[in-house]
Amino acid sequence: MRAGLPRARPGQRVGLLGGSFDPAHEGHAHITRQALKRFGLDAVWWLVSPGNPLKSEGPAPMARRIAAARRVMDHPRVTITDIEARIGTRYTAETLARLRALYPGVRFVWLMGADNLLGFDRWESWRSILDSVPVGVLARPGQGLAQRQSRAALAYARHRLPAEQARSLATQRPPVWCYLSLPKIDISSSQIRALGQWQRTP
Ligand SMILES: Nc1ncnc2c1ncn2[C@@H]1O[C@H](COP(=O)(O)OP(=O)(O)OP(=O)(O)O)[C@@H](O)[C@H]1O
Ligand SMILES: O=C(O)c1ccc[n+]([C@@H]2O[C@H](COP(=O)([O-])O)[C@@H](O)[C@H]2O)c1
């Protein structure tokens, strides 16, 4: 394994929470704890993005975002990593393909807040994401019904795993996705930036 990359053993169930984390906040920590517990994961990696391909404005420098994320989430089973910058990927489909090649036998699960269901069909090769890894979707304040009726959700409706079977998500054969209802935390990085509590430039 290359220096600086997190470790995982074949058979381990690893959730991947990609994000700008600009900055990280309690909403990220909350869905991570819920995903660990309810999807029965061994670990969660926060993939701190070099920059969301759909966002025109760049985020704060990686080192600042990582340091802030580590202050928010200090948990023995959570790793905060700049792995996408290290392996040179930005699009999720590409990241997942590289991670599967780098970590044979590891059972990855792509994690995301339900807001991402809405625009998911604009992601690069979005179908290949759903076809290649189990996807865990965590409730987020907002348009719950619209999210669950988004193009991606409808196109893959028959592959939705009932929440009662959430613990088996990582070992299910894709395409498979699972929507978890949970107590919601109404917080976002945009709100924190709007309050002036985080600047993108030092
Ligand atoms: N409060 C929250 N509840 C549930 N999911 C969340 C919450 N905040 C963020 N997420 C999810 O965490 C992942 C990373 O989010 P991101 O870093 O973009 O934070 P954000 O608060 O959505 O940022 P921004 O407001 O800048 O768009 C996404 O999948 C997002 O849906
Ligand atoms: O691959 C894509 O086309 C794509 C488009 C939008 C978002 N993503 C990923 O989704 C994750 C959440 O992004 P963000 O900026 O909303 O935190 C992050 O890992 C992004 O790289 C990926």
What can you see in these coordinates?
GO terms for molecular function: ATP binding; nicotinate-nucleotide adenylyltransferase activity. Residues 16-194 form the Cytidyltransferase-like domain. Pathway: Cofactor biosynthesis; NAD(+) biosynthesis; deamido-NAD(+) from nicotinate D-ribonucleotide: step 1/1. Catalyzes the reversible adenylation of nicotinate mononucleotide (NaMN) to nicotinic acid adenine dinucleotide (NaAD). Its EC number is 2.7.7.18. It is a single chain. By secondary structure, the chain is of the alpha/beta class. It has one domain: HUPs (Rossmann fold, 3-Layer(aba) Sandwich). Helix content is 33%, strand content 16%. It has helices spanning 26-38, 62-72, 83-87, 92-102, 115-118, 126-132, 144-148, 151-155, 189-194; strands at 13-19, 43-48, 78-81, 107-113, 135-138, 177-180. The chain has a 6-stranded parallel sheet, with helices on both faces. α2 (62-72) links the parallel β2 (43-48) and β3 (78-81). The longest helix is centred in the first third of the chain and has 13 residues, at 26-38. The radius of gyration is 16 Å and the shape is globular. The mean pLDDT is 95.
Instruction: Supply the number of structural domains.
Output: 1
Please state the CA-atom Rg, rounded to the nearest Å.
Answer: 16 Å
CATH class: Alpha Beta
Average residue-wise pLDDT: 95
Low-confidence stretches: none
Q: What level of helicity do the residues show?
A: 25-40%
Question: How far is the first residue's CA from the last residue's CA?
Answer: 34 Å
> What fold name stands as the CATH topology?
Rossmann fold
The total count of helices amounts to 9
- Report the β-strand fraction as a percent range: 15-25%
Shape: globular
Record the strand order, biggest sheet: 3-2-1-4-5-6
Q: What is the number of E strands?
A: 6
User: Main sheet?
Assistant: 6 strands, parallel
Which superfamily, in CATH terms, is the homologous superfamily? HUPs
CATH architecture: 3-Layer(aba) Sandwich
Bound molecules: adenosine-5'-triphosphate, nicotinate mononucleotide
User: Which structural category fits the helices and strands?
Assistant: alpha/beta
